[in-house]
Specification:
Distance between the termini: 51 Å
Helix content: 10-25%
Radius of gyration: 20 Å
Structural class: little secondary structure
Mean pLDDT: 89
Shape: flat
Number of domains: 1
């Protein structure tokens, strides 16, 4: 800090020996009905099935660690059920019971096959 004219600083956690971070998550709980959550198990907002929540708001509770991988996993799961253009939606209506679905392989994956981040559905 001295070299670049900055100010050395910290936070209360440093003083009491309890480090913490602030990752704001939650607010759009996944529920089995509009009475128990904001979004359904496919991340569709209850009563607005074309509106999806796939960010940190859908993480149920503070994980105690950086939530980026959990957010990514939940988003990839939600998007894996979206139909390809022109195909029918296999997700049940919100008025129907939850149905365990197989992921849908995209017709035109964004990441090329064989790349490190390529989609692998097993």
């Amino acid at each position: 800090a001295e070299k670049n004219g900055g100010v050395a600083g910290g936070h209360l956690g440093d003083l009491i020996g309890a480090p913490f971070t602030a990752h704001f998550v939650g607010g759009c709980v996944i529920g089995d009905s509009e009475n128990t959550g904001v979004i359904d198990p496919y991340h569709r907002v209850w009563n607005y099935p074309k509106l999806h929540v796939v960010d940190g708001a859908s993480v149920t509770a503070n994980l105690g660690v950086n939530p980026s991988l959990t957010i990514t996993a939940q988003a990839e799961r939600a998007f894996s059920f979206w139909p390809n253009k022109g195909e029918s939606d296999q997700r049940p209506l919100q008025s129907e019971k939850y149905l365990r679905l197989n992921p849908i392989a995209p017709n035109n994956p964004f990441v090329p096959e064989g790349a490190i981040g390529a989609l692998r559905i097993s």
